[in-house]
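ERR on first pass: missing label on line 2. Operator R.T. fixed the label and resubmitted. Corrected input:
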Amino acid sequence: MVGIKSYGAYIPYYRLERSEIAKAWGGFAMNPGEKAVANHDEDSITMAVEAAFDCLKGMDGKGMDGLFFASTTSPYREKQCSSLIATVMEMGKEIRTADFADCLRAGTTAIRGAIDAIRAGPAKSIVVVAADCRLGYPYSQTEQSLGDGAAALLLGDSNVIATIEDCCSISDEITDVWRTDEDTFVREWEDRWVIMHGYSKNVGEAVAAIMQRNGLEAKDFAKAVVYGPDPRSHGGLMRRLGFEPAQVQDTLFTGVGNTGTSSALIMLVATLEEAKGGDRILLASYGDGADAFILTVTEEIEKVRERRGVKGYLASKAPLPSYGKYLVARRLVQLPPGAAIIGRGSATVMWRTRDWVLGCHASKCRRCGLVTYPIQRVCYGCQSKDDYDEISLSQKKGKVFTFSLDNLAAAGINPPIVQTVVDFEEGARLYCMMTDCDPQQVKVDMPVEMTFRRLHEFGDFHNYFWKCRPIREG
Amino acid sequence: MESIKDKVAIVGMGCSKFGELWDKGSDDIIIEAAYEAYEDAGIGPEEIQAAWVGTINGMGGVTLSEPLKLNRIPVTRVENFCATGHEALRNACFGVACGMYDIVLALGVEKLKDAGVGGLPVGRGFHPVMESRRTGPGTFAFIATRYFHTYGLTPEEGKRTIGKISVKSHHNGNLCPKAHLHREVTLEQVVNAPLIAWPLGLFDCCGVTDGAACAILVRAEDARKFREDPIYIKGIGLSTNQILPHFEPNFDWIGFPMNREAARQAYEQAGIKNPRKEISLAEVHDCFSITELINYEDLGFSPQGRAKEDIDAGSFTLEGELPIQPDGGLKSFGHPIGASGLRMTYECYKQLQGKAQLPERQLKNVKLGLSHTLGGPPQVACVLIVGNSLG
Amino acid sequence: MIGITSYGGYIPLHRLSRGEFLRAWGGFGMPGERAVANHDEDSVTMAIESAIDCMKGIDPEKVDGLFFATTTSPYKERLCASIMATALNMRRDIRTMDVTGTLRAGTTAIATALDLIKAGSAKNILVAAGETRLGAPGGDFEQIVGDGGAALLLGDKGVIASIEGSYSISDDFSGQWRADGDEFIRSWEDRMVYDEGYSRVLPEAISGLMKKYNLAPGDFAKVVYDAPLDVRRHARVAGQLKFDGAKVQDPMFMTVGITGAALTMMMLVAALEEAKPGDKILFASYGNGADAFYLQVTPEIKKAKERRGIKKHLESKRILDNYEKYLRWRHLVTIEAARRPEQEPTSIAALFRDRKIILGLWGVKCKACGTPQYTQGGSIGSTTPIRVCVNCQAKDQFEDYCFRDKKATIFSFTHDNLAASVDPPSTVIVVDFDGGGRGVFDMTDRDPDEVKVGMPVEMTFRKLYHDPARGIHNYFWKTRPIRC
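pass 2 clean. output:
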C-alpha cells in the first residue's frame, strides 16, 4: 500500500504585513494578513532542506531511495538541486534524484512520480520536497499575494500515515501565470480569465473526475486540500464543488501567502497535522492542468506528530520592519558596491570539503575524544593523525559561546552581521554567522540550532553553508 | 638552544610618516623609511649586504630591491600575519648573528589605502564559506564578549574599561609627530561612538593607515663603530597556532596561548623574571582596545582577570609605572601590517636612546623596551625585547 | 516486457563549420562542424520535431504522458510539456512534466516513465528532450556544444528494445553549471571538472549496473553513453571500462556537437537505427550523478525503421554561411530594429482560445462539400474559427481537420525584404495542402533561390517570435522544404 509516511514543512521566519506593501506604494491591500518572506540567505534549495529535515526527523537519510525536488525558482538551470539536497540530507549515492520544474503543479507531479517509482519497485522510500520563492512585480497585487515556503513528504509502502487511494491528472495549455526563462517576476493575464479558464476549470474538472470514478461526493471527505491562488477564487471553487467551510483546508493565504509549487503540499501538511485515522482527504493542485488525489489517513498518523510542520513554523515568526527590508531580503534593490562582500569561490574546495560544508560534519578523535569542526586530520587535543569518526552537527543544538555584532562586514545587506562561536553538547565548537535573529537579543549561552543557508555567489555559483539561529519554538 | 641576547645591535632606524598617504605609493614610503635609517646609521645603501622586507601585499624581494635599487644583494620577503614587520627584523637578526653578513637591513611596509574599502583585508587562505563576512573587529569582539562575560563585567562596564585604553593611546599619539591620528578623545566619546562590531565602537578600533619602518642591524661587537648609542636585541619570541582558534574547543577566548608562549621565550632569552618591574616601556598590539587589555594579562603586566584594576589606576599611562604605547600604538599609528612591528621597535629605539622627538614624551630611566605583535584571527604572536646596554 | 516502443530524433538543418569560430576569433580551431538551431528553433521546437518523428504512425490519443527534459527551457514557470502535448494532439488527461536542472534530465525522465508503466499508472509515455545550450562567444564551449533533440516512446506493448535493468547514482559534484541568471555555460578548471566529475562518476554508474546484473563489457553489441564538453574523455571511459572502441556509439562531436540533456537519447536513437534483434545495449548518462540502463533489442525493431531519426537528419544539412549569422540567430548581437510598425502585443486570451488552431494546426473540413480549410484572419491574435464554408457557404457544418501532418505544395510565394526578420528576406508562401485546403505560412530552413511554385513543403513547429510586451514565446507552425 503506497502512501505518505511522514511530512514536514518550512515557513521562513520573517513576515511582511500586506499593509506594509500598500503603505510603501500608496496603494491598498486587497487582502488582509501577511506574507512569509525568505531571508536574504534563503532560496528554494535552503527551504527544501529545512522541510526535508523536518519530515525526516528521527530517521536516517541513508534509508531513503530517492529525493525529488519541485520548484519554479530553482537557483540553477544546469545543476541538479535534488542531488545537492540529498547530499545535505546524507542520503548516500545510490538513490534516484530528479528536479521537476516549470510548473506550479510540479510538487504534485513529483508526488505522482514517487508513487509510481515505489509501485514499480524496488524503491521503497522517496522524499518529495517542494519549495518556491516567486516574486511579484513591485507595486503589483501579485507581490502582495505570493509567499515563500516549502513542504516535504516521505512516500513509501509500509507504515503509511495516509494511503493514496487514487490520483488523476489533467494537462492543459494555458498562458495564465508564467515566467519566461529571462523573467524575474511573475506575469499574469487578466485575473478573471485566469481564474475562470485556468484555475477553476481545470481543478474543477480533475476533482469531479476523481470523485466520479470513485463514487464519492463532497460530503464524503473530512478535508479538501485544494490549491488556491487567492481566498476569493479558492472559496468560490470550493463552494462550487460542494464543500462546507469546515471541510475546506485554509490556503494559508493570510499567514503565508501563495507559495506556488509548495502550496498544495504545505496545505496537506497542515491538514495531516490535525487529521485522525480514517479521515478521507482530497488533495488537488493547479498549474498548466491539475492533479487530484484521494487519501485516507491511517492510525499510524499518531506516530509522526513530532514535527514543527506548518503549525510550528507558522507560530514562530517576526515581522519585517519595513518594505525596504523586504527588498533587501529578496535582493530587489541594488546595494552600494561597498556593501558587497568581496571574496573568492572555489568549486574544487567546496567539493573537496562537502562533508563538512554540506553535511556539517565534525571529527571526533578516537584517541582523546575531542570533537572539532570542521573535520581536522590532526587532532587539536592530542595531535593524533587521521584517527577520528565523523559526526554531523546539522541537526544538533548548541549554545552561543561568544558573539559579535559586526557592522563592518557586508554592512549594506542586513547589518549588523551576527558572528557567533557556538558550542555543541557533543563538544564541538563551530564558528558561523547567526541568521533569523534580533541582534539585540543575542546573548552568551543562548541556545541555537543550525540552518542551511546560501552564503554568497563567489566563483559564480551559489555557495551554501550552515548558520545558526535562535531555536524556532513552535 | 642559545639565546639571541646581546648578539645583534640596531645601529640605525627610520620611520615614515604614517597616515592616509593618498599621494604616496609603497615605493615612496619605503624610500622615506630606508633613507632615514641610512642617515641615522651613517652609512650609504651600498653598504647593505642583505635585506628582509615584511609585507602582506608584496611580490618577492623586488618589493624592496626595486625602490631602493639594492645592487642585486639578496632580498627576502617574509610574511606572518600581523607579526610580519617583526618577522623581517627577526630574520635579519639571524643573518648577522650567524656571521654570514655584517650589515643588513630590515624593512616593513604596507600600503593599505589603495583598496577602496575600510578595514583590513581578512580571510586570506581560508575556506570560501569561512572567510566570508569575517572582519577584524568582528573577530576581536568575540573576545570582548567573552571577557566581559567571564569576569562579570556588564557591557557598559566593559566598554568603559577598554575605553580608557583608547583615551590613553589617543593622548600619547597626539604628542607623537609621526602618528596618523592626532586627537585627544574623552571616555564619553569613546563609549558613545558608532558601533563597528558590538561591543566595539569606532574608537575601540585602530586606524587603517599606510606606513613603513626600517632598521639596520650589525653584530653587537661591531655596533660601536657606527654609533655611540646602539640598541641591543635582548630576546625574540615567536609562537604560531592553528589558523582558526575559533574552532578549538578548549580555547577560552580571554587570552591567547601564543601571546604567553612568545613572551615566555623572549623573557627567558632576555633573563627577565618580572616583566612588570623590569620592562621600561612596551608597545603592544592594540588593533582593538580589547586586544590591548588581554595583552596586559598575557604578557604578564597584569594578573589574569585583573587588568581593569591597572587601567583604572593609570598604571600604563606615560606617567604610570609601565608606560604602554608611549607613541600612541596602533590606535594612533594605524596598522600598516608589515610596518607595525618595526614601527613599535622604532619607538623603543628612540626612547632608549633618549631621542623621543618631544621632551614631554621622553620617558625617564629607560633600560628595556618591549614590542609585541599579534596576528591573524589570531594565530601568531611575536615579542621582541631591546635594551640600551650590554649585559 | 517494458521498454522502448518507438524512437525519433532531430538535428537542425544548419551546421556551422568550426573553422568559422577560428576565423571570427582566432585562437584554436577545432575540427568538424556543429549543428545550429535556426533562429526560430529552441529546446521546445526541437523536442516537438523529434516527438513527431517518434510518433510517426502512432495515434497520439494512446499516449498517457509526455515528459520534457532540458536544461534550456524557454520558461521558468509554464509547463513546456503541455505546450508540446497540445501541439501533438494528445489527450487532456495525461501526465505531463518538465524534468530539468541536470544534463541527465533525459534519462531521469526515462526512469520516471518506466516507473509509471511498471506501476500500471500508464501504458505509453513519450519522453522528449531538446537542448540549445550556449557557450560564451569566443570560448571553446560555443564550438563544442550543438543543438538537437530526441524522443523515445516507452510502453509495454510492441517493445523494440526492452529495458532489462537500471542503476542510478546521485553525486552533487558540478564542475560545469549555469545558475538561474546565467546565459552561458560556466566551468571550473577543466581537469578537475572531468577527473572528479564525468570520468569518475559515469564509470562508477556503468560498473555498478554491470555488477548488479552480472554483465561483462563484451556482452554489449553497443555501448551508448554521453560525452562531456571535453570529448577526448568519452573515449577514455571506454578504455577505463574495457569496452571495445568499435562498439562505443559515436557522440557526434564532429557533426553535431555536444547536445547536453538530449545527447544520450540522440545517441541511443542512432544506435537503435543500426540495432539487430538480440543486441544488448548499454545506455548511460552523466550529470550530477549518473543513470545507467541495460537494453535488449527485440525482433520488433524492424517495424520502427521508418524514422528520420539521427541518420537522415545528419545527412540533411546546410552549411551556415558564417559565424555572424550564428550570433544573430542566437540573439547574441544587437541588431538595428526593422523600421516597421511595432508588433501588437499578443492577446493571451485569444491565444488560449485558439490553442488548438495555433499549436495543433487544427482547421476544419466542410461536411457538406468536403473542403478542408485552415482559417487565417491575419495575425494570431485575431484568428477566429471558421463558421461558414469558403467553398459552399454551408454554415456550421464542419468537422475538425488537422493540417500539421499534411504535406503541401507552394502555390505562390514572396521574399519580403520590408518585413522584419532575423534572417531576411522573410519568405512567405501560399500553399495548397495535399488533400485540400490552402494557407499562408512563413517558410523556414529555406534557401531563397530554391523556392519555386509547385515545390513540395511540410509543416514544422517553430517559435514565431518573443513578444517582449507580454513576455511570452509565440509558437506557430511554419513550412519548410521536405527535410528528408
